[in-house]
Amino acid sequence: MNIGDEYGGGIVFSLDGTREHGLVAAKADMQGHSAESEDGRYIWSDAKSVCHDFVSNGYCDWFLPNKEQLNQLYLQKDVVGGFADYSTGYWSSSESSVTNAWLQLFINGYQSHSNKVYVSRVRAIRAF
Fold it and tell me: What is the CATH number of the domain that holds 121?
């Protein structure tokens, strides 16, 4: 198994030392949107829900990555591909407070916290 391989309904972007376990990302950003938002943009709570409800190739155990997993995905963004917009942030599941959660800009890798009611892009991942 290698980074960039198609496996388990997505693209491998992280592997453990055995190369038998790791993380795969969905092949594209999540479709749809939160109310009154542009396509592909979600508030944080909807981002978590759309990942949880996602099914690809029969796999239904997808989730919103935490900030460390999201950074791993950012580091492999060119291998994984399919990102709609590098200039916007992608939500993580990691919270920084009751009202804020972490996101990462895919144009430069910068991680910051943002209000959970702001909209951002979403990419589901799953472990194998």
Answer: 3.10.100
Range of the domain at 119: 6-127
- How far is the C-alpha of 4 from the C-alpha of 70, rounded, in Å? 16
Instruction: Provide the domain count of the chain.
Output: 1
What are the Cα distances from residue 83, in Å, to 1, 37, 67, 88?
23, 18, 17, 10
* Amino acid residing at 87: S
| Residue 1 forms part of a structural domain | no
pLDDT digit string (tens) for the chain, length 128 residues:
999 999 999 999 999 999 999 999 999 999 999 998 888 999 999 999 999 999 999 999 999 999 999 999 999 999 999 998 777 899 999 999 999 999 999 999 999 999 999 999 999 999 99
